[in-house]
Amino acid sequence: MGLRPNSGSTEESEIPYLGFHGGNVLKAHGIEPAPDRQRTPAWSTFLKAHWDSIFATDFTTVEVWTRNGLVTFYVLAVMHLKTRRVHIAGITPSPNATWMTQVCRDLTDCEDGFLKDATHLIVDRDASFIAMRDFLDQNTDTEVVLLPPKSPNLNAYMERWFRNLKSECLNRMIFFGRTSLENAVREYVQHYHAERNHQGLGNELIDPRDHVDAVAGEISCREQLGGMLKDYHRRAA
Q1: 52: domain range?
Q2: Same-domain check for residues 90 and 196
Q3: Of 10, 121, 143, 152, which has the fewest Cβ atoms less than 10 A away?
Q4: What is the pLDDT of residue 143?
Q5: pLDDT for position 198
Q6: For the chain, how many structural domains are there in total?
Q7: DSSP of 119-149, one letter per residue?
């Protein structure tokens, strides 16, 4: 790193000059050049501006016993930030480009794709997302929001959901085969949508059932996954 050439004063000559290589360093760390950096809105402002149609996605991993021994499975989830609604896009031991491309086709289906109305999708810099980013850029109007390196706080809603999934379900079970993992994740997502209150939504449910507001009737407990997930409600009188 040298000094700025042809400087007009002693003070200016002491300002570090990054030049071409310095610009590459900034780009590699997800930092825009100074003029663009000044025009970039705050993250909270960006979220508010696109709150109705912004989604986020990420992976988590689970160890599963199979005939071939212990295998790491990847669970890909997508969340609509405004409603906190979550969709499990897929579960696989190998999230390669072919698999990710097919997942994108399903997510962006014009009839029932979870991302069919998305204007922005938050993704991190995991290499597994390269195929997804390329597909969305080439085939949809959804803009990929690529997070800076090592910034899980900018995808906090998705990170918190995975934390809940693991602490309330996955970390309390031993899985034998892919089917057992898929069943557990499916039941947890149902519980998350219809039976679990959310502080970020005013302590309400995402998909409230008809009996939620009942004030009369016998209290009943519905158990899932061997009693790990429980829902207390009043039976219809």
Answers
A1: 48-201
A2: yes
A3: 10
A4: 95
A5: 84
A6: 2
A7: SEEEE---GGGHHHHHHHHHH-SPEEEEPPT
**Do both 159 and 76 map to the same domain?**
yes
- Residue 232, domain member (yes or no): no
* CATH number assigned to the domain comprising residue 142: 3.30.420.10
Residues 6+ apart with CB under 8 A from 40: 32
Exposure pattern of 146-174 as b/e (b: 16+ CB <10 Å)? ebeeeeeebbebbeebbeebbebbbeeee
Cα 208 to its chain centre, rounded Å, is: 23
